[in-house]
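Figure 3 (text version): structure tokens given as input.
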């Protein structure tokens, strides 16, 4: 007796439970001839006859009945295991690990997560806002939201979501105290809250001799501006709610700095997991409904 092909066990169980080669073929979605050949191959490897055959139906032999009792729970367990895999279920499910920049995580991403969870209750979100570039594969993340002028990691699959822009903002209390800049040169005479990447302002802005505050955290820049420390250059989506609430004023409102693009990236795979595709598509629709830029890019 040889070692049976384990792939033939579900086929054997289907025939035993339907008493018919044809019915088993329909249940499994394969040709009847494949069922017949499979049963014959299993019998040959075991060295026993498993079924009595007639023109209308088949019936288990004594050896076939004994074999069925041993094999049936194994096949049922395998069906439960494979049927319960997240990617096999009708709705996307399972844990989804996402990383994003801190400013994204503390602004629109919280709202998106709430709406996404309501739509896909079977997905457990693990979102990690951070200002460092995460190694998705090495650290076990499914995908990332990233901001860049141009992505440098060509090993990732990327989808551009939106352009981004930054503008100059100040608190109403600061402007009441120091006056409103009316020209690009005027900003040089003002206190300035500077992000480390923008210590020197881009032309045609004239940089002040020395910023009042320098930091590498855009959220801290945002908060310091709102507290009246000085002018600052921050993404327009980050300032939007405060402008609406009257906590910030856009200075030189016709000018904006192109600040790269927002991307959704994930490791390459032959089949994108449904939970990743669901989040990507939901994110695209969310940004279309809630643009990150005031004007089209």
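Below: residues designed for each position.
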């Amino acid at each position: 007796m040889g070692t049976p092909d384990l792939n033939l066990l579900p086929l054997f169980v289907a025939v035993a439970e339907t008493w018919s080669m044809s019915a088993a073929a329909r249940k499994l979605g394969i040709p009847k001839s494949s069922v017949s050949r499979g049963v014959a191959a299993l019998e040959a490897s075991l060295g026993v006859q498993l079924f009595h055959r007639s023109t209308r139906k088949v019936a288990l032999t004594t050896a076939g009945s004994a074999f069925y009792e041993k094999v049936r729970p194994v096949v049922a367990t395998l069906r439960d295991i494979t049927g319960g895999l997240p990617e096999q279920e009708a709705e996307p499910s399972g844990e989804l690990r996402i990383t994003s920049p801190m400013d994204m995580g503390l602004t629109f991403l919280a709202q998106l997560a709430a709406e996404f969870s309501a739509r896909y209750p079977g997905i457990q979100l693990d979102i990690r806002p951070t200002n460092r570039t995460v190694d998705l594969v090495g650290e076990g993340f499914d995908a990332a939201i990233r901001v860049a002028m141009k992505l440098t990691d060509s090993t990732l699959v990327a989808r551009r979501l939106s352009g981004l822009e930054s503008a100059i903002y100040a608190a109403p209390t600061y402007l009441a105290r120091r006056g409103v800049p009316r020209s690009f040169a005027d900003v040089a005479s003002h206190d300035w809250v500077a992000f480390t990447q923008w210590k020197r302002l881009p032309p045609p802005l004239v940089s002040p001799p020395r910023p009042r505050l320098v930091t590498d955290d855009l959220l801290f820049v945002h908060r310091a501006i709102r507290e009246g420390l000085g002018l600052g250059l921050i993404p327009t989506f980050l300032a939007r709610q405060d402008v609406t609430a009257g906590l910030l004023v856009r200075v030189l409102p016709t000018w904006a700095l192109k600040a790269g693009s927002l991307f959704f990236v994930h490791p390459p795979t032959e089949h994108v997991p449904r939970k990743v595709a669901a989040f990507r598509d939901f994110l695209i629709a969310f940004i279309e409904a809630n643009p990150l830029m005031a004007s089209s890019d």
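The CA atoms of residues 174 and 199 lie 20 Å apart.
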